[in-house]
Amino acid sequence: MLTRTERRRGIGWGLLSLTGIALFVGVAIVALLSWDAGNAQSRLFTLYTWQILRFTLLQAVLSTLLSVVFALPVALALARRPSFPGRLWIIRLMALPMGLPVLIGALGLIGIWGRQGAMNSLLLKLGLEQPVSIYGLSGILLAHVFFNLPLAARLLLAALERLPAEYWLLSSSLGMKPFSVFRFIEWPAARRVIPGIAGLIFMLCATSFTLVLVLGGGPAATTLEVAIYQSLRFDFDPPRAIALSLLQIGMTALILIAISLFLVPDDSGITAGRATRRFDGRTVPAHLWDTLAILLATAFLVLPLASIVAAGVQANLWNLVTSPAFLRAAWTSFAIALSAGLLAVLTSLAIIAGRGAVADMKRPGGTARAFSLSLAGMSSLVLLVPPVVLGTGWFLMLRPFGDVARFASALVAIINMLMALPFVMRVLAPAVETHRKRTARLSASLGLSGFSRVWRIDLPVLAKPLLTALSFAMALSLGDLGAVALFGSSELTTLPWLVYSRLSSYRTNDADGLALILGVICLGLTMIGTAGQREIKRG
Amino acid sequence: MADGIVLEKVELKLGTKEFRFDCRLSAGAVTAVTGPSGSGKSTFLNLVAGFETPDRGRILIASEDVTEKHPSERPVSLVFQDNNLFAHLDIATNIGLGINPSLKLSDPDRKAISQALERVDLSGFETRMPGTLSGGERQRAAFARALVRRKPVLLMDEPFAALDPGLRFSMANLLIDLHRETGNTVLIVTHDPDEVGRLADHAIFIDHGQILLQAPVEEFLSQRDIPALAEFLSG
Questions:
Q1: Cα end-to-end distance, chain B, whole Å
Q2: Cα dist. A399→A91, A391, A535, B134 in Å?
Q3: B74, B78, B88 member nearest A188 (Cβ)
Q4: pLDDT at position B145, please?
Q5: ipTM metric
Q6: Touching check for A402 and chain B: CB below 8 Å?
Q7: DSSP states of A2-55 as a string?
Q8: Do residues B10 and B58 make contact, with C-beta atoms less than 8 angstroms apart?
Q9: Residue B51 to residue A177, Cβ atoms within 8 A
Q10: Which of B76, B84, B89 sits opposite A184 (nearest CB)?
Q11: What pLDDT does A129 receive?
C-alpha cells in the first residue's frame, strides 16, 4: 500500500536507527572486550564474582517468589470483590510504584521500615526483639516486593478478569465451593500467566540497580550491576568491571531466552468492576479474608508513599526549590529527559517505519525479514546490555580522550533513551499499526502522502500516543539513577543524583524534600501517559 | 400448574431500568421468552436462575419459594449462548462438574457422563478440549451437562444464536427430543420468531421490563395488535 518512495524512506529510517543503536551498543561492548581482556578473563570466576552472581540470583528468586505468592491472594480478592469500596483507586494505586523513581520508593520504604521507621517502632513496642532490617537481603526483598507485588497483582487480576462472565454464572449455578472455584477456574487462569509474570519480575530484580545500591552494599548484599558500578567508581578496577559485565550479559541473555518461552502477560482489560459479577465468596470468612488481603496490600503500598509525603513537607520546600543546586540539577535533568524522550520517540518511529516497509512488501526476502526482526530486537537490546554495562564500555572508550564528564550528559541521555525504547515501542507500535490499518487504503486511494499525510492524517490521530510515549520516556529518564551513577559529579548532577548524594551525606531532610518534588513530577508525567493510553483504548 | 415457575409481583430496579414481572409458566412445557434487545429478557432469566434477586415479590419453582436462594440451590440448569464450557478443562470434566462441583465422581457418574455424551452424539469426546470442538458440538456438550444434572428446569439464553441456520434447526430438534425424554420445564430466550414456532409451547413477549403478552404459541404468533410484537414477528 506504500508508494515506492515511502517504502524506500521507511527502510532508510529503519536502517539509520538500526545502525545508530548497533554502533552505540557495539562500541561499548568492543571497548569492554578490548580493554585488557586477558586480564579480565582471569577475573571471571573468582570467589568474589561467584559470590556476587549467587547473591544476584538468590535475591531475584526470593523477590520473585515473594512478590507472586503475596500478589495471588490480593488479585483473587480484588477479582472476587468487583464492588469493594475504593477498588478502582486501589488498582490505580498498584500502578503507582511503576511510575515512581526507584530511589524515591527506597526513601519511602526506609521511612517506614528503617531503624527509626514507623513499622519497627511498632514492632519494638509489640515486644519483638529484632525488628525488620531495611538494609541487606531483607531490605532488598522488601523493596522488590514493594515494587513488584502490585505489578504481579495487576497482571493476575487482568488475567482473572479476562475470564468469560459465564464462568462465574456457571460456577455458582453448579454450586462450586471456594476451593473448587480456585481449583477449576481461578488457578488455571493464574497458572497460565504466572510463568510470564515471574519471568518479568525475575528479570527486573536480577538487573535491579538503585535499590541494591541504596539498601544493599558490601559483598554480602551486592548484585552484578552494583558490583560493576563499585568496581569502576570506587575501586577503579576495570578488569573486574569487565568480567562482571560479561557475566551480567550472559545472565540476562539466559533469562531473556527463558522468558521468551512464556506467555507475555499484559494488564489491559482491568475493568472498573462493572462488567464482572461474582456470586461466590458470600460467606463471612470469605469476606474477612478478602478484606484483609486487600487492606494489607494497600497499607503496604500506601505507607511508604505517605511517608515520602510526610517527610517531604517537613523540609523547607521553598528554600530547596529556589536553591541554585536544585535549579541546576532540575535544568540538567529536564534537558537530559527531554532529549532522551524525543530521541526515544523518533527512534521508535524510525523502527516502526522500517518494520512497516518490510511488512508492506508482497514477498519479503530473507534479508528483509532479518532486517525487520533485528529492528524488533534492537528496541529491547538494553534489556540484554544494561545501562551500567553500556556506561562502563563508554567510560573506558572515552577515557583516553580526556575528562569523561564532558561527554557525560550526552551519554546519559542516549542510555536513558535506550532504556525507554522498549516502553515507547509498546505504546507507539500498536497505535501506529491500528492507525495504518484504518487509513492505509483510503490514503493510498486519495493519493495522500508525504507531509500532507503526516500533517492531516497521522498527527491528529497519533498526537496522543506520541505524547504518552514522550511523557513515559521523560518520567523514566527523570527518575533514573542507573545511567547517571557512573558519571555523576559536581559537573553533572541530575535530580536523582542530587537526592542520592544528599542521602549519602546524611542531609536526609533535603533528600526527603527533593524526593517529594521528584516523585510528584515523575508521577505527574506517568499519569499524563496513562491517561493518554486510556484514550487510545477507548478510541 | 402448581409445580411450574411462578414470578409473583416481582419488582426489580437495575440502574435506571425498572422491571415488573408477574406470571406463571407451566411445568413440563417449553416457554419462549422474546422481546426487543434491552427489553429485559436476560433479566427475566437471571431472576429465575438467581443471579438477580427481586426488590419485591416472590419467585417459586415447583411450588418452592426460591426468592432468597443462591443460584446453586435452585433446581435449574443453564445453557448460555457462548462460554458454556471451561475452556481449559476437557469435556468429561466440564460435564462432571455438573454432577459434583468438587469433581468427586463415582463410577456410575462417569458412566452417566459417557451416556449423556452418547445421547448428544458426542461419543468418545470425553478427553477433547472445548477449543477443538465446533460451536455446535460445544453447545451439545452443554446439553449433555444439563442432562446429567437432572434438574427439573432448563434455562437457555439464546443458545443457538451463535450457530448458522442449518445447525440451529438440528439443534432445535435435539432439544425437543431431550425435552420429551426428560419432561423438564424449559425457558428459552430467543429473538428468532421461527425458533419460537419450532420449539415453544408457550411464549411471552417482554418490552420495557414488562410482560406485554403471554400466550400459547399459535395465538402468540398470530397476534398483531401489539405494535412492538408485530414488529418482532415480522423480523
A1: 32
A2: 47, 12, 47, 67
A3: B88
A4: 94
A5: 0.83
A6: no
A7: --HHHHHHHHHHHHHHHHHHHHHHHHHHHHHHHSSHHHHHHHHTSHHHHHHHHH
A8: yes
A9: no
A10: B89
A11: 66
Q: pLDDT tens digit string along A456-494? A: 778 888 888 898 899 989 998 999 988 888 887 777 889
- CB contact at 8 A, A251 and A227: no
Cβ neighbour number for residue B68 with a 10 Å cutoff: 11
Amino acid making up residue A422:
P
User: Which cell numbers hold the place of A463?
Assistant: 498526537
Contact assignment for A184 to B77 by CB distance below 8 Å: no
- For A127, half-sphere exposure in the C-beta direction (CA atoms, 13 angstrom radius) is 0
Distance from the B83 Cα atom to the nearest Cα atom in chain A, whole angstroms: 6
Q: For chain B, say whether A276 makes contact (Cβ under 8 Å).
A: no
Place of cell 416481582: B10
Q: What is the third-level CATH fold of B1-75+154-235?
A: Rossmann fold (3.40.50)
Q: Could you read off the pLDDT of A413-466 as tens digits, one per residue?
A: 999 999 999 889 988 988 888 888 887 777 777 767 677 777 777 888 888 889
A275 — contact with chain B (CB < 8 Å)? no
Residues 6+ apart with CB under 8 A from B137: B122, B125
Please name every residue paired with A538 in a beta bridge, in sequence order, or none if there are none: none
* pLDDT for position B1: 44
Whole-number Å distance between alpha carbons of B55 and B65: 15
Q: Which pLDDT value is given to residue A538?
A: 37
Tell me the Cα Rg of chain B.
Answer: 18
- Assess B150–A contact: CB distance below 8 Å, yes or no: no
CA neighbor of B23 nearest in space, from B215, B230, B231: B215
Residues in chain A: 539
CA distance A353 to A7: 8
Gap between the Cα atoms of B160 and B75, Å rounded: 23
The domain segmentation of chain B, as residue ranges, is 1-75+154-235, 85-150
Domains and their CATH numbers in chain A? 37-304 (1.10.3720.10)
- Say yes or no to pLDDT of A539 above 50: no
